[in-house]
Amino acid sequence: MERLIDTYRQTNVQLSGHGKREVGVLKRAFEQVREDEPSDQYGQGKTIRQFEEKMAHVLGKESAVFFPSGTMAQQIALRIWCDETGKKAVAYHPLCHLEIHEQDGLKELHHIEPILVGDENRLMTLEEIQALPDIACLLLELPQREIGGELPTFEELVAIHEHCRDKRIYLHLDGARLFESLPYYEKEASEICALFDSVYVSFYKGIGGIAGAILAGPKAFCETSKVWKRRYGGDLISLYPYILSSDYYYELRKDKMQGYRDAAVQLAARFNELEGVWTTPLIPVTNMFHLHFQGDEEEVGERMVRIQQETGVGITGHLVEKDGYCSTEISIGDVYSHITSNQLDDVFRQFNSK
Amino acid sequence: MERLIDTYRQTNVQLSGHGKREVGVLKRAFEQVREDEPSDQYGQGKTIRQFEEKMAHVLGKESAVFFPSGTMAQQIALRIWCDETGKKAVAYHPLCHLEIHEQDGLKELHHIEPILVGDENRLMTLEEIQALPDIACLLLELPQREIGGELPTFEELVAIHEHCRDKRIYLHLDGARLFESLPYYEKEASEICALFDSVYVSFYKGIGGIAGAILAGPKAFCETSKVWKRRYGGDLISLYPYILSSDYYYELRKDKMQGYRDAAVQLAARFNELEGVWTTPLIPVTNMFHLHFQGDEEEVGERMVRIQQETGVGITGHLVEKDGYCSTEISIGDVYSHITSNQLDDVFRQFNSK
């Protein structure tokens, strides 16, 4: 729906995100960086090494490697664990990024067979994991983005960890939004990561950088991942535009995750008071939730267009039509705090007035 | 040799390159870019589309796709031509980038068997190409970097093109340094590319950008390459740090290639006058040549260290020891023009005075 995205782009503030993805994001990150700060060079040099060492420490892992993308990092992680065990099968959630957003890269490039665990509308259970056939690696995504950012309890994570350890199944963490999960667990990143053999984190979701990812794990695993990074063409002569901006926005936002989550909880509560509107989870556990509206895309879209035009607040630029309702994703970032309470009241008044 | 690279880094000017690879390269490219210039988004948006269309036009191809690296772009090009023909074999020079710098990515990720054509110390010949078994694709690198940037004549290129056309072998151009070759051919890029089915060009060699590559060819080929780019994890949410800087440095340097080449020819002539020193090619055909010194690494290295310290001119930071001599690569860029004629005379006086 063209008008939906157009009116969304014309709003001054939005419920989601850290603001527009534009060159200013790069410029702000580099304002304080000296001109003579040296580039990394094919994975070497202090610019990349310092950030890798810092993130290895944050994640409590022996070693860490900077990658241009999580797609590249995670396929490589699974490949390494497959090679390590001599098995060509891994397991993950049916709505895992590798399954729905990567054009079957894992299968096409590595001939690794993924086993989809559980139902796509909920988290996988320990029982489902226990029933898996022999696999090299289980990938868990924390939070599970495509179902609104759900999280298992820490106790469930420990039980999954123990099962995998006993069965000699490598456990990999898709932590694209790991930092966003920490308020729920009330733990440090390293305490969560200690349950996993390898971890990927992203720097352009809650952190709001330009692009980039870290893959962390044992030293030998990370060294092998560098060989694969070269094979993939991800070992660029210079990754510093992503490294230095990732570091900048990590420092800027790492301690704001509790605030984003609190805002998500409050906002979801207000939406859930509306007729024909509900969220999943009902009470968000991270900074994100899915927002559902009864009605078809045309009808719901028109309503959004009108509200966005009249209030100047961006709700969404994109709706997914389901069976009798439409859905979108809300992901709280810095911009939410720029919305005045009057503006927000105005939004909900408009929703109420049909 | 630690002291060689250290003294090289301490020099103010160097025979090769466009200056130090540091954050200033990024800052200069973005100085004039507006803060509200939108990011590309997973390969979409005007920032990436405009540059792709521009380069498709420059290279005379129907379509073009921006990639983070040539490694990724070229493996994908060869894979597509293999799939197109149903064959799993390609051919290239023994010192092709895919053979020596990519950790066997083509074999490990695609199980494509490369056939190495000809002798590693010279260009491949038409006769050697005619003697090849059935292959999907022949890759030609213009200029052949690892032998000092040699180039076949245009007539030889035409003959290779006609042979491949007749035998239904796809012809791919590794044009990492294509722009640097144009003065030799006295032709437009599109006239060279017309002989090839697909073309890759780089933006951080002679062009001196941060990183990035363009893959160009028929529309269907390019569309398929985008699917593979996604599989590889190269379809980043934002590639603009590389795209906009590639464009900036392309515009800055595309018309300077003749000057770089003229300087390379003059500089090589002066080296060839020295005793125990010679270049390949003897007369450079692009902005680059290999520079050889009789003696072992220790002896030649010490001499370089002294000359670099005494003249402030960087010759090299890295020597490769061969059988009785040492080699390095010289690649002329903007910095060469900052060396005064007195400084250069000083360098050659030092070389003469042993």
Topology diagram in text:
Two copies of one chain form a homodimer.
Chain A: H1 2-10, E1 13-14, H2 23-30, H3 46-59, E2 63-67, H4 70-85, E3 89-92, H5 97-100, H6 105-110, E4 113-116, H7 126-130, E5 137-141, H8 154-167, E6 170-175, H9 178-185, H10 189-193, E7 198-202, E8 213-217, H11 219-232, H12 240-253, H13 257-273, E9 277-280, E10 288-294, H14 297-311, E11 313-314, E12 320-321, E13 325-331, H15 341-352
Parallel strand pairs in A: 1-11, 3-4, 3-5, 5-6, 6-7
Antiparallel strand pairs in A: 2-8, 7-8, 9-10, 10-13, 12-13
Entry summary:
Chains A, B: This is Beta-eliminating lyase-related protein. Two copies of one chain form a homodimer. With 354 residues, chain A is α/β, with parallel strands linked by helices.
